[in-house]
Amino acid sequence: MEIRAEQVGKKYRKEWIFRRVALTLTAGSSYTFVGPNGSGKSTLLQLLAGSLPLTEGQLSYRQQDTVIEPDNWFRHVNIAAPYLELVEELSLDELLTFHQTFKPFKAGFTPEIVAEQLLLGHARHKEIKYFSSGMKQRVKLGLAFFSEAPIVILDEPTSNLDRQGVAWYQEQVRQLIKPAVSIAGHSAQLLLIGSNQPEEYDFCPNVLNMTQWK
Ligand SMILES: Nc1ncnc2c1ncn2[C@@H]1O[C@H](COP(=O)(O)OP(=O)(O)OP(=O)(O)O)[C@@H](O)[C@H]1O
Q1: Where is each ABC transporter domain found (predicted)?
Q2: Residue among 191, 95, 177, 104 nearest 136 (CA)
């Protein structure tokens, strides 16, 4: 799996947020976008996820030599971000069951196992609206970690997490990017992070500063 960005730029009203982004992002590796507040990390991640239009340039998703149509990109991406909301009226069990109808969990994961992995086994029957902000953040991350998709995008992944939550994130993200072993159905992941917290990406070999595209 690969995402290619060619001369990608984004403008809001008359202001260019970034220009001439040229990247090849390849599964089996991870990439972190860093930069000051407002430098465009979230915007670029949304472009790469296919959820925002570009102003200029081209983006493509490729699997081996096959180009994937933009209408199908969402099937290949799990994204956890502060601006994406959970369905607050559902209990955790209901949310996980609903979620897997359109984005199945990885082999061996059931809603019950996912809840345990989130350290939220005790809260399976509680409505999401009664979760603390840190509990909600773990749910968002868990949906990204445990659903089947080759691309995982995490924007500000440890926001609202306490120290135990940060340790949990660090363990899960390392599991995610472990080199793929040759188990049928297990493919290498492409992990993209937007961050300003070194503890969120200290394992990541590719740290890209947004200021280079100003
Ligand atoms: N819908 C929008 N309309 C107009 N301007 C926008 C819109 N969304 C973002 N921007 C602007 O784009 C710039 C980049 O914002 P973005 O949220 O991508 O930055 P960021 O690097 O993720 O910031 P932070 O570190 O604060 O999360 C900011 O100047 C922001 O005001």
Answers
A1: 3-213
A2: 95
